[in-house]
Amino acid sequence: MTLPNPTKFYIDGAWVDATDREKINVTNPANGETIATLALATADDVNAAVAAARRALPGLRATDMAQRRAMLHRIRAAYAARIDDMGQAIMQELGAPIDLARAGQAAGVLGKIDAFIDACDEVVLSEPLANGDLVLRQPAGVAALITPWNWPLHQIMLKLGAALAAGCPMILKPSEVTPICATILAEVMHAADLPAGAFNMIHGDGAGAGATLTAHPGVDVISFTGSTAAGGRIARTAAEGIKRCALELGGKSACVIFADADLDAALTSTLRKAFNNSGQNCNAPTRLLIERSAYDDAVTVAARLAADWTIGWPDQPGAHIGPVANARQHAHIRAMIKSGLNTGARLVAGGLDVPPEFANGCFVAPTILADVTNDMEVARTEIFGPVVVMIPFDDETDALSIANDSDYGLAAFVHTADRDRAHRMIRDLEAGMVLVNGSDISPGSPFGGVKASGIGREGGIFGIEEFMEIKLVAGAP
Ligand code: NAD
Q1: Predicted TM-score (pTM) of this structure
Q2: Are residues 140 and 200 part of one domain?
Q3: CB of 285 closer than 8 Å to CB of 388
Q4: Which residues of the chain have pLDDT under 70?
Q5: What are the tens digits of pLDDT across the range 300-324?
Q6: What is the residue with the minimal CA distance to atom 31 of ligand 1?
């Protein structure tokens, strides 16, 4: 299949030409080849998209949950028909190996849509209070959705499905790194036959289209996933305009492994979460805290398990990891590995070298740095690549204090055979999500963080509520 060129925008139910001719290249990170050109939305394009969404607001607000659920069902059917195309797009623009691109990245989104369909049953649009007043849950207005590139379709659907279930018309500005899969998703939305203006998509970069969209006075609610730096800028814009704002940002999640845990099982699950998708997972367990009595064994086991993680070409089937998303990320990750080595970390797997055939792409070998202390740059900075650090701790109090000594608070992971200790850790870890003994997060559960990892939750009913506003009615006849 020929992939679409992201040179048009989807506004008011139709594909429209960009008003500006300026374009930027979309690059395949496996080999540096240009695979598409991307149109950049101007203020006029943003105005047109916001105007279309505003026109759609009264109609969407008047829909009931059965109508919104029906729209989600149509989206699901249209999406399922395009999974192969989206897998191909993600393989080329993100560099994800084809099996991951098709199954995890593309098909995996169906579970998120299903969770929104189920959550429609939980939304109560009108609720009488015991005091005789009435509470309505209404769409918060026109929504701006700004998404990153690492799980591009998941991140779009978590916002899109929630906004639609809440009755909000939306303007999506997907990542400029992965605009092709987003363009196919807009084709899916067209095929799903939504009311004109309910879904709009513009392309562009953050400083241009993204900043113009979030500052637009016709936007009432902003939902952003991306870096903490950009999230801070968007939060300031939202504050200026008194807009609702949900932020899903970066992480440096601690994984606490006690000596009573099954080390093999704990480290197998941890490295899978940390290395999958070339480590480009905001909630990855990248700070491994190991009880000192098990530390040497854990380093040995981790080094052995890391050998199962190899790099390979994106178009080859298999469970290898591909390149990281772009040259900027590649340079950042390599700089972090160098920083670790320069400050005393011990390299036990991976490092700066890759086999010569991969030297021209953005490949990074799965890397483990041991003997790290929590004050080192590699323990404090989000690396966003296949790199984990190992830090020993003395006891539960020490583990908690190291785990919580971070700017971030997205996820935390605990491995222990002691149920009471697990519950104390669950209570005291400063994180939006705690995963115990290798568990995974289910679709529909609230995803999000605390501290510099953001504000708000995505997924299922929790995500829908971010797009809803309460209206109190007294004396309703
Ligand atoms: P990024 O912040 O550079 O860009 C994310 C999106 O925001 C892009 O669409 C970009 O164009 C746009 N953008 C950037 N600056 C903007 C601005 N001032 N105004 C409006 N839009 C702007 O992030 P990235 O490099 O694409 O993604 C990687 C980051 O995302 C990592 O830090 C990662 O941890 C984070 N992330 C978080 C989650 C989560 O749910 N917490 C999920 C995935 C990724």
Answers
A1: 0.97
A2: yes
A3: yes
A4: none
A5: 999 999 999 999 999 999 999 999 9
A6: 227
Length of the chain measured in residues: 477
- C-alpha–C-alpha distance, residues 463 and 162, integer Å: 6
Q: Total structural domains in the chain?
A: 2
Residue 342: partners with Cβ closer than 8 Å, 6 or more residues away: none
**164 lies in some domain:** yes
Dist. CA 456–CA 323, nearest whole Å: 31
Ligand 1 pocket, residue 281 CB under 6 Å? no
CATH number for the domain that contains residue 402: 3.40.309.10
pLDDT score at 4: 87
As a three-state string, the secondary structure of 162-206 is HHHHHCCCEEEECCCCCHHHHHHHHHHHHHCCCCCCCEEECCCCH
Q: Which two tokens stand for residue 43?
A: 């203020």
Residue 380: half-sphere exposure toward Cβ, Cα within 13 Å: 8
Residue 328 near residue 342 (C-beta atoms within 8 A): no
Best mutation site among 93, 175, 450 for ligand 1 pocket (most ligand atoms within 8 Å of CB): 175
For residue 153, CA distances in Å to 102, 110, 182 come to: 11, 10, 7
Owner of token pair 């829909």: 63
Determine how many CB atoms are found less than 10 A away from the CB of residue 94: 31
